[in-house]
Amino acid sequence: MIRLLVVAILSLSTLGASAALAQSQTLLEERQRLPAGSGWLEVRTGVSFGDSATIDQTLAITGKDDPAAVFGIGLHYRTARLDFGAIFEHAGSFRFAGLETLRRVGGQFRAAASLRWRYIEEAWGALFLRLSPGLMVFSHSDELRFQVANLTANADFRDVDTHNVGFSLGFDFGAVIYITDMVGVSLHLDIVAGTSSIGGLGQDFDYSVVRGLFTAGLEWRM
């Protein structure tokens, strides 16, 4: 009788474990399919690093180790491997070495298309690469305008533009980890370049920035 009871318990345990394993596998397979064919909203924040700017291809400005804040939102539609959408992001002003103190350059805001390729897609999440071409709005601090004015003799920095619009191109790679079927945590490492010109003083000066961005955020399905 005891032997039969033991056999019965072992049989039930085996069946239970098999059923649980099958159910878990089914949930994983379903979860892999859930992110495709849906719209997602993304919010992220972080810091910049390795910032630099160039004025008229002659004056190079290198940012000091003083990270600037970054904040962005994005919308995208997921297919099996590719995500199509748009991102809107603001990167605060980085600082460079001026006379006796650090001087600010001015922040940038970009609106860009987003093409993201999830080259690894698993139940836990995905690894991705993203390309984001778009437009960038440059805000110029008084200190930067003073640097531009110094390129022209007898110039007043107040004659230099305070804002300009140009083109931007971003490339980033990162990971998204699915917390639930509706929410994921994302990590990004971006390189963003922007180019424009600063007008005033009767001529235009080429202006470009290159910024590294490290951000973390949340994504959720709408």
Can you give a write-up of this model?
The protein is α+β, with helices and mostly antiparallel strands and 222 residues long. Helix content is 18%, strand content 59%. It has two helices and eleven strands, in the order αββββββββαβββ. It has helices at 2-33, 142-149; strands spanning 38-55, 59-62, 69-78, 82-91, 95-97, 102-104, 108-121, 125-139, 163-178, 183-200, 203-221. The strands form two sheets. An eight-stranded antiparallel β-barrel has the order 1-3-4-7-8-9-10-11. A hairpin with a 3-residue loop joins strand 3 (69-78) and strand 4 (82-91). Residues 1-31 have low confidence and may be disordered.
Question: How is this structure best summarized?
Answer:
This protein is an alpha+beta fold.
* N- to C-terminal distance: 58 Å
What percentage of residues falls in helices of 4 or more residues? 10-25%
Q: Beta fraction of the residues?
A: over 45%
SSE-based structural type: alpha+beta
Could you state the order of secondary-structure elements as H and E? HEEEEEEEEHEEE
Strand arrangement within the widest β-sheet reads 1-3-4-7-8-9-10-11
The stretches of 5 or more residues where confidence is low (pLDDT under 50) are 1-31
Task: Please provide the count of β strands.
Answer: 11
Biggest sheet record: 8 strands, antiparallel, barrel
**Radius of gyration over C-alpha positions, nearest whole angstrom:** 26 Å
Taken from the alpha-carbon principal axes, the silhouette is: elongated
Q: What is the averaged pLDDT score?
A: 83
Number of helices: 2
Secondary structure topology:
Elements: H1 2-33, E1 38-55, E2 59-62, E3 69-78, E4 82-91, E5 95-97, E6 102-104, E7 108-121, E8 125-139, H2 142-149, E9 163-178, E10 183-200, E11 203-221
Antiparallel strand pairs: 1-2, 1-3, 1-11, 3-4, 4-7, 5-6, 7-8, 8-9, 9-10, 10-11
